[in-house]
Amino acid sequence: QVHLVESGGGSVQAGGSLRLSCAASGRTFSSYAMGWFRQAPGKEREFVAVISRNAVSTRYADSVKGRFTISRDTAENTVHLQMNSLKPEDTAVYYCAGGLNFGTIVAGRDIDYWGQGTQVTVSS
User: What digits encode the pLDDT tens for the residues 84-99?
Assistant: First the structure.
């Protein structure tokens, strides 16, 4: 069992930065690929980024590529999402997710664990 808790959300002006963190409890954290998703008001939840179990592989949505960076600290059981050059369209609730299959996380499938979400608001 893995329990995920996000933090680091908040309000920022366009062009600013935020760093989201996802703290995972449970001894099997290192067994899971970890991802970030987001859901804006009135829209479906969408993939943002994913990192493999050994942190060797990452993948990003085209909309955030070059601006966001996902990383993980296995010793601290945490996953981070560094978000730079934020835009108003990045406004959403951001969710941390864990799954065994790196490839299917991108499609939002085979997600075993979800966090409760953290709000990110970017003003113009």
Answer: 999 999 999 999 999 9
